[in-house]
Amino acid sequence: MEHLNYNSNADKSDFKSGFVSMLGRTNVGKSSIINALVGEKVAAVANKTQTTRTAIKAIVNRSNSQIIFVDTPGIHKPKSKLGDVMIETAFGSSLDVDIVLFVVDATSNEIGKGDRLILNKIIMSKKKCILVINKVDLVDKAQVAKLISLYSNEYDFVSVVPVSVVKNKNLNVLLDEIENNLKPGPAYYDTEEYTDQTLRQLAEETIREKALKLLNDEVPHGIYVEVDKMKFRKTQNKKNIYDISATIYCLRSSHKGIIIGKSGQMLKKIGTFAREDLEKMLDTKVNLQLWVKVKEDWQNDSSLLKKFKLQ
Hints:
By secondary structure, this protein is of the alpha/beta class.
């Protein structure tokens, strides 16, 4: 999806701005929606639960507004200190924003436990909330109408927007509805920016996303990635290049073997896919080196988990 109406007139008196949090159960497609709206990959996307661990800010600049999205971890039952931090981050982000987007799956037939938990938090907050029904390409109109009725009986949503990232359906409608509900305000970020993540964080997210997509189910959420070195230089031929060295940490030695793979093939595949994405993102060549280390029980390491808290 292309960039959406970037502007250079952020000083106009009718200009609007604000912060928008996106809440929803794991795997309802929050990160995919954010990436589609922004037109850049700022959030890891994979067909696995708990992909997003931190509250990532993504910025959409339009001709009359600047919308700052906070993508939060999906709501799930925590099984470690990491899980507790993720839930704290998800709900904490919804308290200090202008608008909440509540994303639900179009294929659900009822308000399940996870959705009910989120809905109750929204009701308590009394925040302006837009209900986003995602994946409408998978259901008929009757199913969408049923969900609209079901949720509208629970809360006075300022708007309900059915969307499909796959079909590029109603994404601009969603942006219009958000803009309509924002108050006049300044541009908080430069209009060329689309995220407040550092290049190191974007690189870590990119590498972790590739690992999530390629590894077996028992491994991915036992990993985290740290960029050890990220240096820009020019080659002897005066070509631009980034040297990036990163470590994939895992919980067990058996996981380390799976991540590396036979003759190093899995790690090579993760590195190749990550490098391709990073070169597109940085618009330059990338020399990427990956290492794998075991760090047992890191998910309960309080000092380490600070990096996953809402900033």
